[in-house]
Amino acid sequence: MERIQDAHERHTECAWRHRRKGNGAAMMQNEKREQIQALIDEKINPVLESHMGGMEMRDYQDGVLTVRFTGTCGGCYAAEDTLENVVKEVFRREMPEIREVLLDNSVDEDMMAFARSLMRGGGR
């Protein structure tokens, strides 16, 4: 009986360590997201705000960051240049662990709803 109890305690200890390790990875991911958001808020958005635009993080996983431009930057002809020369440069310098920055060009759902209301004549 004592062996069973010892085995159970070892199993419980192992499971606790495994869960803790998994939570550590989630915590690291959250810390990375917070670092990314801080860079967006402090270094990127002030530049884009001078053009009545901004940028938001859409996703971050395994060194790949997906962002979306907002405001006038969202439809700007120079969005790709801004991504290359401003956004990627900031992340290369500040967070080299980000291997790739992708631009999400999807249309915001609020914008789609507004466009639909205009088409139905509700925007007047």
From TrEMBL:
SUPFAM superfamilies: Fe-S cluster assembly (FSCA) domain-like. Gene3D superfamilies: Fe-S cluster assembly (FSCA). Transmembrane segments: none annotated. GO terms for molecular function: iron ion binding; iron-sulfur cluster binding. GO terms for biological process: iron-sulfur cluster assembly. Residues 36-101 form the NIF system FeS cluster assembly NifU C-terminal domain. May be involved in the formation or repair of [Fe-S] clusters present in iron-sulfur proteins. This is NifU family protein. It comes from Hornefia butyriciproducens.
